[in-house]
Specification:
Strand order of the largest sheet: 1-2-3
InterPro entries: DNA_brk_join_enz, Integrase-like_cat_sf, Integrase_recombinase_N, Phage_Integrase-like_Recomb
Order of helices and strands: HHHHHHHHHEEEHEEHHHHH
CATH architecture of the largest domain: Orthogonal Bundle
Distance between the termini: 68 Å
Helix content: 40-55%
GO molecular function, one term: DNA binding
Strand content: 5-15%
Keywords: DNA recombination, DNA-binding
CATH class of the largest domain: Mainly Alpha
Mean pLDDT: 88
Shape: globular
Number of domains: 2
Protein name: Tyr recombinase domain-containing protein
Largest sheet: 3 strands, antiparallel
GO biological process, one term: DNA integration
Length: 334
């Protein structure tokens, strides 16, 4: 719908076959200006604006009328009582406006004032999620039966690589069987694309082997053996599991969704006796990052391991230990 209005109406008038091919390639290029997960989120938010605008007789979808959009933001803020919902709508509609060649709606002075007012009125104290601790990982391993199911082994493997690799859930979802290489003293995980890799250059995460029952390499190896993972396959590493009278086996195709992985790991946390409301999708990444920071891992290596582009983004994941925080004042004492 968006790539058929605005500048695209003009481009459709081009008759030259060579230029028509370039138009098709340009569409693809424009749609790759954001990460896939971001575009999916923006699309949902934009379609909500479209649905609301279409229910009003005199409201057009694109180009966006600033006064109409300000009214929509007021409606959305009153309906959801959510600052993030209002901000997401503004970002989404602005991006789609730009893809059609129109000015970003977020730059309109009136919309800016409406957004700023809603941000202030809808602001709430943020309850930051707790990081997962090494103790919790040990409890996950200890909770496994002597002959554990593939489902349980899968959950523990995901938890360990997310923690020790500082992986986001969307990175875990996209992992393929061929993206993992096991070596004598470590493993290499290839990250084909991620939220911070806007230009899709790819990256690699290396995780050391310890040889203990809490070794992240060993945990993933156990899953791969039990699931009979083909290390050369381009299929997703973590897939659904089929249960039968003969036990469990990995589905041959498909992948686990972001929400399903979250459901699996929050279920594990609840089974250990913790409140899942205290933890979130970034708790494993945050847990590994906090442990590394409190153990004095050099900042440059720390940042590279987590694929952070800025100091502020990295620091947002760290929960300093009480000992580290007390160390500040200890250094001031006479």
């Amino acid at each position: 719908m968006v790539l058929s209005s605005g500048v695209w109406e003009e481009l459709r008038k081009i008759k030259d076959p060579l230029l028509q091919q370039l138009v098709l390639k340009l569409k693809d290029t424009i749609m790759h200006s954001r990460a896939d997960s971001t575009i999916e989120k923006y699309t949902r938010a934009f379609l909500r604006w479209v649905q609301w605008a279409e229910s009003r007789d005199s409201f057009g979808k694109l180009p966006v009328n600033p006064l109409h959009f300000a009214l929509y933001l007021q409606h959305l803020g009153s309906l959801t009582q959510s600052r993030s919902a209002v901000e997401e709508a503004t970002n989404a509609v602005s991006w789609f406006s730009q893809t059609a060649g129109y000015t970003s709606i977020s730059q309109d002075p009136f919309v800016k004032m409406a957004l700023a007012g809603l941000q202030r009125s809808l602001s709430k104290p943020r309850r930051k999620k707790e990081p997962v601790s090494p103790v919790m990982l040990k409890e996950m391993v200890d909770s496994l039966d002597q002959d554990p199911s593939l489902s349980d082994v899968r959950a523990v493997a995901i938890a360990f690589i997310a923690f020790y690799g500082f992986l986001r859930f969307d990175e875990v979802v996209k992992l393929r069987c061929c993206d993992v290489r096991f070596l004598s003293d470590h493993m290499v995980i290839k990250i084909v694309s991620s939220k911070t890799d806007q230009y899709r250059q790819g990256d690699e995460v290396v995780i050391a082997r310890s040889g203990s029952s809490l070794c992240p390499v060993g945990r993933l190896e156990l899953y791969c053996r039990m699931a009979r993972v083909d290390s050369q396959s381009a299929e997703c590493l973590f897939r659904g599991i089929v249960k039968s009278k003969n036990g469990e086996r990995l589905r041959s195709l498909g992948s686990l969704s972001y929400s399903r992985i979250r459901e699996i790991l929050m279920g594990k946390i609840k089974a250990l006796g913790y409140d899942p409301a205290d933890y979130g999708t970034h708790s494993f990444r945050s847990g590994g990052a906090s442990l590394a920071a409190n153990r004095g891992v050099p900042d440059r290596l720390f940042k590279k391991h987590g694929r952070w582009k800025s100091e502020s983004a990295k620091d947002g994941y760290i929960k300093d230990s009480l000992s580290a925080r007390l160390d500040v004042s200890r250094k001031l004492l006479f």
